[in-house]
């Protein structure tokens, strides 16, 4: 199938260079893209090659590929950025403050943009598999695209022939009403469909359609490590106990996993877990390769997300049989996939990773040493705050065991002690629900810290416990601990 087969009606066909030349040097540009897939390629590359002095504000609802996060960043064209960046180049520019980077929760970015909370958008550039005068079919991710399209004055659609037209069968595009007249999202089951398969827009907005055949810059997941497998086993043991303990999981369990190699490994290992005949449903923001084995074996009732964050092999697996997978997979806008009310409604068990957590249960997902940004908070706060059971899972050390990821005090906190219920490392599980701060600290140290650091953490806690304080601490000692 050629790009021309995907074009419907009288459309403003243009090349990427002319589109880029018409974008103002200081424009606010919204783009599609989430989970490193479904983002526009050719217009960002044309902007990167533009010889004007550009100072763009760029807004994406999730991570994007190298065309944006390397080429466009290296060109110096981006002055301000929302909300998640995923390359070494973008990370370095953020930490040098060459780019003014503002991190936001994935669930709220659509409202932030549409109702002018953070930017006044000029143009929205999206990737699609088909387009008409007043509609387009998104490709491999949705993110906050429907809200971005509504918010922008102008719309540019890249129609990508490298993505199968059959992706249309995956999409379920529902738009929440504007506050204060916003009704609850009418979704009663994650596998249910309540919207359209395409994004509709005011035809006056469509300024250009660009033909493309450039594939996604897909994910690369490392092979599971021994620590990953041990974490998966510990998580499985916890889930087994939780299923037996809590009556809410009598019939079904709804799961979510964060993006990355560990999350992908945990998804893959779940296929070995005995769920006792319960329905297993995935309700999260990202579908990764690890879920496909469960889908293929019929062990997953449905998988609802906003992005297909797959490897090249995972994409090929999907593209070869899209219509079959569409029976079980639903892609939704991020203001639905990450909706706090739906996460609560389905009683999700959310499993997310982090950079580190401290002995009192505070979690740092974004900054090394409390100061250097890594990627961004993404949707982790949406699920950590609103899941029925929130789990933080990560190896207990990094740098070949030289640095503990269980620390006396987190100097940057994305998720507070009130957000996380359970901590899992390769060492064990610390269920800290209902515990006081010092009790949490004792359990986390004994169950989750690496043996090489346990004695130092015990000594720290023993010393600060002499204070008359609900959460005893020694800030200077904690800062110098490693």
UniProtKB/TrEMBL annotation:
Pfam families: AcetylCoA_hyd_C, AcetylCoA_hydro. GO terms for molecular function: acetate CoA-transferase activity; acetyl-CoA hydrolase activity. The keyword Hydrolase applies. Residues 314-460 form the Acetyl-CoA hydrolase/transferase C-terminal domain. Residues 29-211 form the Acetyl-CoA hydrolase/transferase N-terminal domain. One of its GO terms (biological process) is acetate metabolic process. InterPro entries: AcetylCoA_hyd_C (IPR026888), AcetylCoA_hyd_C_sf (IPR038460), ActCoA_hydro (IPR046433), ActCoA_hydro_N (IPR003702), NagB/RpiA_transferase-like (IPR037171). Keywords: Hydrolase. Residues 174-195 are annotated as: Disordered. Belongs to the acetyl-CoA hydrolase/transferase family. PANTHER family: ACETYL-COA HYDROLASE. This is Acetyl-CoA hydrolase/transferase family protein.
């Amino acid at each position: 199938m050629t790009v021309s087969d995907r074009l419907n009606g009288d459309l403003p066909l243009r090349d990427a260079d002319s589109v880029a030349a018409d974008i103002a040097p200081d424009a606010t540009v919204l783009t599609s893209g989430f989970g490193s897939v479904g983002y526009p390629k050719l217009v960002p590359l044309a902007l990167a090659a533009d010889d004007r002095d550009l100072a763009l504000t760029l807004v994406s609802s999730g991570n994007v590929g190298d065309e944006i996060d390397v080429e466009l960043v290296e060109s110096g064209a981006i002055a301000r950025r929302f909300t998640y960046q995923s390359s070494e180049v973008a990370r370095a520019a953020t930490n040098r403050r060459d780019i003014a980077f503002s991190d936001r929760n994935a669930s709220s970015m659509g409202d932030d943009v549409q109702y002018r909370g953070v930017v006044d958008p000029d143009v929205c550039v999206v990737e699609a598999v088909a387009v008409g005068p007043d509609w387009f079919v998104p490709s491999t991710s949705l993110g906050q695209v429907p809200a971005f399209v509504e918010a922008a004055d102008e719309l540019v659609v890249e129609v990508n022939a490298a993505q199968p037209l059959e992706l249309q069968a995956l999409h379920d595009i529902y738009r929440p009403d504007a506050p204060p007249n916003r009704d609850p999202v009418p979704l009663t089951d994650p596998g249910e469909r309540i919207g359209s398969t395409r994004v509709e827009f005011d035809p006056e907005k469509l300024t250009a359609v660009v033909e493309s055949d450039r594939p996604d810059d897909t994910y690369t997941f490392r092979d599971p490590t021994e620590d990953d497998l041990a974490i998966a086993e510990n998580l499985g043991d916890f889930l087994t106990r939780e299923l037996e303990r809590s009556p809410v999981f009598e019939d079904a369990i709804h799961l979510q996993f964060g993006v990355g190699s560990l999350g992908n490994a945990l998804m893959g290992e779940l296929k070995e877990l005995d769920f006792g005949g319960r329905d297993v449903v995935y309700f999260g923001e990202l579908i990764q390769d690890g879920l496909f084995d469960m889908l293929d074996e019929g062990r997953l009732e449905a998988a609802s997300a906003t992005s297909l964050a797959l490897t090249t092999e995972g994409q090929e697996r999907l593209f070869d049989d899209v219509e079959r997978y569409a029976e079980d997979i639903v892609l939704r806008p991020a203001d639905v996939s990450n909706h706090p009310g739906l996460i609560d409604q389905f009683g999700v068990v959310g499993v997310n990773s982090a950079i580190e957590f401290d002995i009192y249960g505070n979690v740092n997902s974004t900054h090394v040493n409390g100061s250097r940004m890594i990627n961004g908070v993404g949707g982790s706060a949406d699920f950590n705050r609103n899941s029925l059971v929130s789990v933080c899972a990560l190896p207990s050390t990094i740098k070949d065991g030289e640095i503990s990821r269980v620390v006396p005090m987190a100097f940057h906190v994305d998720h507070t002690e009130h957000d996380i219920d359970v901590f899992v490392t390769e060492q064990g599980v610390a269920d800290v629900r209902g515990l006081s701060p010092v009790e949490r600290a004792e359990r986390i140290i004994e169950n989750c810290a690496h043996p090489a650091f346990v004695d130092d953490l015990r000594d720290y806690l023993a010393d600060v416990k002499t204070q008359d304080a609900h959460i005893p601490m020694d800030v200077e000692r904690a800062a110098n601990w490693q």
